Amino acid sequence: MSDREKIESALEQFFADERLSRRRFLGRGASLGLMAGGLATAISACGSIEGVTKRRLGALQQAAAGVNHPKVPIGTWEFSNWPLYIDKKVLKTFNQRYGGTVKYVEDINDNYEFFGKVRQQLQDGAPIGRDIVVLTDYMASRWVSSGYTMPIDRKNVPNGKNLTATLRSPGWDPKRQYSLPWQTYATGLAYNVKLTGRELRSIREFFNPEWKGRVTVLSDWHDSAGLAMLMRGIDPTTATVDRYLEAIDYVGQQNSKGQFRRFTGNDYTTDLTKGNVAIAMAYSGDVVQLQSDNPNLRFVFPEEGAMLAIDNMMIPEKAAHPYAAEVMMNFVYEPEIAARICDYVNYISPVDGVREILLRTDPGVGRNQLIFPDKATLERCHGYPALSSGDELLCNQAMAKVTGA
């Protein structure tokens, strides 16, 4: 067994043994640590994707034009997702209604780590044993552009009409032929008002010397560099790789001055809840949960804007049960089912009508601006960029130097 294989095997065992939750694992910033640990191969392998892109993407577009997945028995099929991202009772409801069995696996702890586990099959054009995978938009974009996904037969997903208008046409999948959003989350400013002594509104607070040593910043450059650019009036969604590298360098300069206590993934929650820091770069859905333990915690969509990311459902190439996957997609886009999921995970639902249901069934959640931000707030949110694999690698390497990963 090679060193890389040993590392990957150890990581897989670690994830299985620890049963890390999506809110406690180093999450979307973990890829930097994985690079340092020997999985840079998984990231650099993204570069080899481009060698097969034209051939596979052409075939995929042709398939999308005439996609037809006939109705068949649901059977036993597999759904890979992030930990703690659904109320398991929803899965039981699905099985009871449609028959068959969904094998729901919480084996996506990081976008790059998961890609590393299945990349060889994808590159070989072989099935990966999953019928739905849920990946964050920058990785979902890579899969679509590389022909690693199967087109969705939208005739089997009539509830797709319930997708909120703002999410219907991302640049990397403008007709939503290969993806449907699972949940959305925002990255913004969390703080302990008891420690700050005042309300905060600006991204500039992360770099304010007043809080030196009492700030945590996310190690995922999509978020930290993205917010740094918003502070300077630059749209991170359309920014070039040079802009991102400049922003990463700025974050590094601030770190060298001792501004940050540390870089984090989802583990910022510990320092924030215990009062070890006054300010944290945070995910909106997490703070909803944390406020029940510490009522002094606040989360704001900064006045300059916030980062908004989407976790997307996709059917991998050569999936054995595409019809079952589409039935599930249709199922979770029923407003009543989507409301049950939202009520459990407390992230921003992509389905219209969910808020109205929760205002009746769980008014506290239905009124929560972190879960249902208003239109003006959403207009200040910006998506992740769709950089090339080479540019992604450059940013990963630059951020790894900053964080010491």
Question: Topology, pairings included?
Answer:
Blueprint: H1 3-18, H2 30-44, H3 46-65, E1 76-80, H4 88-98, E2 101-105, H5 111-124, E3 132-136, H6 137-145, E4 149-150, E5 180-192, H7 193-196, E6 215-218, H8 221-231, H9 241-256, E7 262-264, H10 268-274, E8 279-283, H11 284-290, E9 297-300, E10 306-316, H12 322-332, H13 335-345, H14 354-361, H15 363-366, H16 375-378, E11 381-382, H17 389-403
Parallel strand pairs: 1-2, 1-3, 6-7, 6-8, 10-11
Antiparallel strand pairs: 3-10, 4-10, 5-8, 5-9, 5-10
Helix pairs in contact: 1-2, 2-5, 2-17, 8-9, 9-17, 13-14
Care to describe what's here?
With 405 residues, the chain is α/β, with parallel strands linked by helices. Helices cover 45% and strands 15% of the residues. The protein contains 17 helices and eleven strands. The chain has helices at residues 3-18, 30-44, 46-65, 88-98, 111-124, 137-145, 193-196, 221-231, 241-256, 268-274, 284-290, 322-332, 335-345, 354-361, 363-366, 375-378, 389-403; strands at residues 76-80, 101-105, 132-136, 149-150, 180-192, 215-218, 262-264, 279-283, 297-300, 306-316, 381-382. Strands 1, 2, 3, 4, 5, 6, 7, 8, 9, 10 and 11 form an eleven-stranded mixed beta sheet that branches. Helix 9 (241-256) runs parallel beside helix 17 (389-403). The longest helix has 20 residues, at 46-65. It is globular and about 60 Å long.
